[in-house]
Amino acid sequence: MLQVNNIEAVYSKIILALKGMSLHVPEGKIVALLGSNGAGKSTTLKAISGLLSGDGGQITDGTIEFEGEKINNITPDIIVRKGIFLCMEGRRVFGDLTVEENLMAGAYTRKNRTTIKDDMEKIYVYFPKLKALQHRKAGFLSGGEQQMLAIGRGIMAKPKLLLLDEPSLGIAPLLVKEIFQNIKQINQEEGTSILVVEQNANVALSIADYGYIMESGRVVMQGNADILLSNEEVREHYLGMGKDGEKNYKENKMYRRRQRLVW
Ligand SMILES: Nc1ncnc2c1ncn2[C@@H]1O[C@H](COP(=O)(O)OP(=O)(O)OP(=O)(O)O)[C@@H](O)[C@H]1O
Ligand SMILES: [Mg+2]
Q: Fold for domain 2-254?
């Protein structure tokens, strides 16, 4: 369904953020894109959604194809109409609008009012907390509630492919589990294909079919989610669990650094 082929992306004409990035999202599947800070995960999602130019960036090489059609020179509004919707990092909801108005905003490309109303009810079934808050201004919602709203707004666009940028960011572990279960349910019931970027590799791989791990602008490892989850190297470097549950080298190093700071 989505094929990213060897793309290179540059910010401000000089900062090379993607250096031959490739990935594939098959129809109806959940794909996790993992990696540490600055690896290029958000840049990849922005490149797919046509949003790089807004950040002073551009794709300088490679192609992005969606349903067999090249989309890397198309404007973001047309990409949304083709069925790709990005829920950006940091749950960007419209703070002055109510929950219901935010959900309506997600449906702005759609015409049929009756199905929009039905879908809004469906969102309230996925996220019952939002129903109780439907007339509340989104700016007053908690972080977790805003994240649910951001995902709900994405579903209101009825995308074929939903791109999620770190849905777990700043959210308590219990709620993270709930949000990811909802994402899985949406994928199964609506048939929406999902590409989810996460630092929380464990929770993302637990719902994904396939995973990619990025470092410095390219993929360094990929595989079926269950295989990645059981891979020693992945567990050590990306899940923070070494052999016998010991802390990994990076964490030890961080710990030593922190100690040095204290003394
Ligand atoms: N607007 C921008 N202008 C210049 N450089 C940028 C811009 N946005 C990102 N970068 C740089 O591009 C690289 C990739 O950033 P990106 O935001 O894609 O990383 P990420 O994998 O999403 O990281 P994180 O996990 O911290 O969100 C980083 O080195 C970052 O500093
Ligand atoms: Mg990011």
A: Rossmann fold (3.40.50)
